[in-house]
Amino acid sequence: MEDQQVETEGRLEEIDDAGSRRLYGTEWALLDKEEEEVAYALKSDAEVLGEYAGQHVRLSGFLVEGFPVEAGEPGYISVMEIQEAYYSE
Predict the structure, then answer these.
(1) Domain around 11
(2) Cβ-based burial of 21 (10 A; exposed 0-12, middle 13-18, buried ≥19)
């Protein structure tokens, strides 16, 4: 399977659900800006995600194979690049 590159944006937050932390093996998530729901779990060897906690960010990376486990669950991105995104609500 070819790696699927993805670019997206939203608010980076710490995952507070223990089940999600176990499932994804990460503490970081990207929330969509419309519904404040977890859109993607995030991991990165290239960036320190905690530096962007609580910020609206734009990121790019690759989808992690095997996620989402079930339809309707968040995807999982291995983040290669992240930057603060500026927008007005």
Answers:
(1) 5-84
(2) middle
- Write down the pLDDT at residue 13: 95
> Cβ neighbours of residue 69 under 8 Å, at least 6 residues apart?
23
SS3 8: strand
Other CB atoms within 10 A of residue 19 CB: 8
* Residue 89 domain flag: no
Mapped onto helix, strand or coil, the DSSP state of residue 12 is strand
Task: State the pLDDT at residue 87.
Answer: 63
Phi, psi of 34 (to 5 degrees): -80, -50
Q: Give the pLDDT confidence of 24-74 residue by residue, as tens digits.
A: 999 999 998 777 889 999 999 999 999 999 999 999 999 999 998 888 899
In a domain, 61, yes or no: yes
Number of domains in the chain: 1
The whole-number pLDDT of residue 89 equals 52
